[in-house]
Amino acid sequence: MSSVHIIGGANTAFGAFVKKNRETGEVFDTKSIYELISEAGAAAAADAGIDPKDIDGIWVGSCSPSLFVNQEHLAPAALEAAPEEFRFLPAVRVEGACASSSLALHQAMYAVESGRFKRVLVIGAEKMSLLNTKGVTHALSCCSYWPEEGAQGMTFPGLFAEFAKGYQRNYRIPSDELAEMFAELTAMMYRNASENPLAHFGKGSVPEKLGLFSREAVLALPPEKNPVIADPLRLHDCSLISDGAAAVVLSDTAAASGKPSVRIAGIGHATEHFAISKRENMHELIAAKHAARRAYQEAGITPKDIDIAEVHDCFTINQLLCTEALGLAEDGRAGYDYLDGKFTHEDTVPVNLSGGLKAKGHPVGATGISMHVMLYKQLTGEPIGLAPQRGTPETAALLNVGGSGVTNCVTVLSKK
Length: 416
Fold this sequence. Notes:
The chain is of the alpha+beta class. It has a domain at 5-133 and 241-251: Thiolase/Chalcone synthase (Peroxisomal Thiolase, Chain A, domain 1, 3-Layer(aba) Sandwich). The protein is 34% helix and 18% strand. The protein contains 14 helices and 13 strands. The chain has helices at residues 33-48, 65-69, 83-86, 100-113, 133-141, 156-171, 175-193, 206-210, 215-219, 286-299, 316-325, 334-339, 356-359, 367-379; strands spanning 5-11, 18-20, 27-29, 57-61, 91-94, 119-127, 228-230, 233-234, 243-251, 262-271, 308-311, 395-402, 407-414. Helix 4 packs across helix 14.
């Protein structure tokens, strides 16, 4: 059983922090990855109520800064969150596609559990919007199994479309019902994000202006406003290209002076065959289920004990798969549960009150730590955005996925 605690956390706003010259096509950075890292790191230390000099080490999760911003060797950038206090600290970058910062948290946890470190800072960050769509597509495709997938023109919408087709085929879901499920998830995430002041698609953004807060409104979009990206996935089934950062402070003891903290009760990390050609099926996240079982066993809980969750909805189909992988819905039934109104802020187990990757935003290297921050704030009674109608939750779970269901990280957080 883990004795590592989250004693502070912070999330920058997520968005596209660039200005574009429509005439020349030039793109200008308005908030750099260095600024995002510093902002999140400094804010997390402040939220923990500690002096930055009390930090023993730094872990940074980032997916592909070399392709997104021409910066390898990113971890040293974290020192600028507290230039004098952090100078000479060990700083390490961890990569695991969209699960990079959850893996960074795992590595930081192990360091604390070893006894060598007492308090550490974990930061997740990505700056994606300096690239055009083609550049982003290429960078992300490098997280696929390149010889068989990226090099053959397979994109991540295409990879997750294979999951969608496999799911539909295996559970014999009619196309119109699948479309309704996806539209319900899209509308739900847009509603939730509209209450999140840090969300990319927050209040006043395009989904609110278009009134996309119901599945009927999403389904009514004309094809040119919601084109097919990779059948059956449409534009509004896809998460956002975002910039942002998030950070947490881990400690070997609970927070002092009565400040709220949460315990990392259990973690699970499971890796799937890289190539989808080697999977026995494409209708479930097999490795994610292994990760969930490991996390639950370590935490001493079952899915029935979970009060709130954040899942990796890079595409609407993956929200269904993740909900089932965590055991919150029976296999093949998650879509019907969402259609029945489950997993909202009014339900017993709300899912993605943040707006999820779909609408909060998905700066890939920041996503894992952002999920931890959002749940940490929920458990400590300081929610960012929507709060569960049934009161402050006690136990939370998150599932962060890297690649096409390849790297799977589950964390259970507990107030106890």
